[in-house]
Amino acid sequence: MRIAFAVAGLLLLSASARADSSVWMFDHLDRVGGVAAHAEGAPKIISTGAGPAIQFDGVKDALYVDKHPLAGAKTFTFEAIFRPDGGVFEQRWFHLAETDPKTGLDTGTRFLFEIRVVEGRWYLDAFTAGDGYNTKIIITDKTFPIGPWYRVAMSYDGTTFRSYVNGVLQGEVPLAYKPQGEGHSSVGTRINRVNYFKGAVYEARFTSSALKPEGFLPLPAGLATAP
User: Fold this and answer.
1) CA distance 136 to 127
2) Is the pTM of this model over 0.85?
3) How confident is the model at residue 30 (pLDDT cuts 50, 70, 90)?
């Protein structure tokens, strides 16, 4: 009986975790996760062993989505499955931006997934900024080969901001976080059209709680992984 109750509890927790998450699959250029999107440059839908993804050229390609998917969240997990293909040193490839409801302009409050590319390898920069905080986690000696697909995540549990690659902790810092407001997002570039990304993006998920690594998105079968 106790085992049955324990299993039921785990199922309820799992259902709750799913209920406060939204998933974006990158398989269309005009709509992502049920939200209107528009492309700039010429990003391409490509085939992978796990289905479609969107590829960016690192020069002018971008996708803009009319939503900030973590607006209002007090805690969060922001995940993505992506493939870096080289390119310039500094690439800001996934940006969630708050906008001022009165002016429609970006406020500077934001989330960013970034990478730095050095000699055929890359390392992660996870960044967030808002009212009273401006925090990044960048570990320059934790590098990974260009070319395979990777899972990246950043999370906040109410006290600590963390970043991960393939479920492995990269770094953690205290954070006095405040929820962000409504806005929009860019993929393939920073929202102000600088620091373009060379590579592809397959999937993203946004959860209003801090997930443990065992609850992160799995890498789908059919996507090439790092050796």
Assistant:
1) 4
2) yes
3) very high
